[in-house]
Amino acid sequence: MRCGVLLAAGALVLMTACGAAPTTSGAPGVAKRGDRLTIGTTADVANLNPLVGNSRTDSWVTNLMYPHLMQMDAAGRRIPYLATDWAYAKDGRSATVRLRDDLTWSDGRPVTADDVVFSVNAVRKERFGVVAGLVTALDEARALSPTSLSFTFTRPDGTFLDNVGFWLPIVPKHVFEKAPSVQRFANDAAWVSAGPYRLTRVERGQRYVMERVESFGPGRPAVKEVVFRVYPDVNTQVLALRNGEIDLIANALPPATALALKGDPEISLVEVPSLGWAHLQYNTRREPLDDVRVRRALAHAVDYPAIREIALKGLASSARSSVLTPTQPDYADPGVHEYAHDPARARELLREAGVSGLSLDLIYDHADPKIARWAPMVRDSARKAGVTITLRGLERNTYMDRTHRRDFDVYAGSWAIMDNPPANLALAFRTGGFLNYAQVSDPALDRLIDQGGRALTREQARAPIRRAARIIHEQVYDNVLYVETLTVAHSARWTGFKPMPSELLSIVNPLSLAAVKPVS
Which stretch is the leader sequence (predicted)? Predict the structure, then answer.
């Protein structure tokens, strides 16, 4: 029988599934080098319910416990995982998915189509998490057999399978359905999982220990044990990597740190392409930001090359001021160019708009080291254009609350991964979109986004999505500053990592951690 962990009365107790007497957990035993991979993170797991958790550490741990229908290759395209194949009907109003038949939950029950249907419906019914905003076209999810299911839609939706397939964790129906609310289910003990690793020990503030699943369907992982260790900051992580306490730093390194580690023979640096970008958004419902001339003036006031060279230490490239960056070769539009840093043109545009003495607040997460470096540069270059920007560095929860309430003039942040542009643009720029923080409402843009969303292939979606991105560029509904070159560090004693083009997943993803092995 498998074991779980129960947090009770502030003590950590190891309980066997068959009800034997508990024993107190201790530190992990001494493992032979190569049997354990230790990963550094800067935060505890906030939520072990994979349908709710959204922090990086949440995802890193739960992605190893709960399968997704699909994974992603280095180019951002979907590849089989729990699903073996999938297809849309010709009219785009339905789709079918076939599943592998060799995946089992840790209590011995098979992973089936009923689990997939339950997971989709739970998110849709209770409307929580970003996935809820990606399944608005779903009419019905139905299991056809233990290894096949179908989806029907209220409208053609060519984004659905990629979205649900990659972003939705599949949870065991027979466990989660017992909770009155799936959204409120803590899932903090006796985990029933079906990933390449199972969670066996939690020491909050210290470590999360995961053991290999020997019978994992897609293939037994090479490493027996994965341990996530919690550190207060990246500098402490770097010291731990250098002295051999950890084998990998999970989060992407700040550029200055990455440059400082170059040339260390004991450390390998992996450059990961990013499908995300950093940006400034202007609240289009506030005067005078509702005037495109003012937004264009602000775009011309930014010194993009300086931000990339100074704040990012050259570890970034131009996004061409477009939401479709060169990292997305299937969608990127070579005809779109970056806004020139031109304070004189910015002043001219402000005069045309009848605006003088413009003063704005800019909010950002003060704990984000990259944005904290370039936000003052945005302020200083705006001053040359006659614009006064007051920086409001906020604690993350306050920052997120004000963002969700659309309570800002200018918002500085980042989009972690633009992996499915038709769906992403709908979330961020369609009228009423779940992540439409700038409060954009443009009927012409809505029509193009909807057209791209109905397309069943990337080839069909490319033209309308490019036109939509041009409107976003021309109207400055988003001001994309750069695409970062992500750098991840690991001990040179390990090899076989499989990068994904995302800061969230990088080389800490199920495919990568199942394939990594010690250098022979």
Answer: 1-20
